[in-house]
Amino acid sequence: MPAIGYVDRKPSEFWARAYPDSLFYQTYFWLPGPAEAELEADPHRTIRLFFYALSGDRPQGVNALVRPAGATSLLDGLPDPDPLPPWLTSEDVAYYAESFASGGFRGPLNRYRAQDIDVEQLRTYAGNKIEQPALFIAGRNDPTRYMIPGVDRYADPVPRFADCRGIHLLDGIGHWVQQEAPIAVNRLILAFLNTVR
Fold this sequence. Notes:
Blueprint: H1 11-18, E1 23-24, H2 25-30, H3 34-41, H4 43-53, E2 66-67, H5 90-103, H6 106-113, H7 115-122, E3 134-139, E4 164-170, H8 177-180, H9 182-195
Parallel strand pairs: 3-4
Antiparallel strand pairs: 1-2
């Protein structure tokens, strides 16, 4: 994700204004209960649909982050890939699904529910830069790139990096960069590590 500067506003208020008539995934996650019920009902389906819908292989117009006005479900209407894309095996799906089946989705969803707390707790670090050498690798087709209406989050993805050693946007790749393009990601990381020896 982009290493943006500190933003002194509560995400809950911002996203509610940005998507007043649509179901935005983060606002959907805030209320405990509905998201857990939907995602836990069939973890295999959840993994297949959500992974595919955020990938560079998703069909044109598919947006798993912002569902249409009146939607009450995050997953309904998302395509179910058959066959799975080559970077996502049935074994992968089973592994993730079984992990979520045993642990549930509440813990991961609580990360979104804590975002308003982050604003207060991170305020004292607002002007700090990330000093260690760093690298930015992302998928050019990641739907989170444009999740703020009218903003390309990758236009300047690393304003907090004091020592950026590279910005790489991989063509045809979506949100799951290391899974969709493992060879390219490993090559870039190994080259980066050679710069910090």
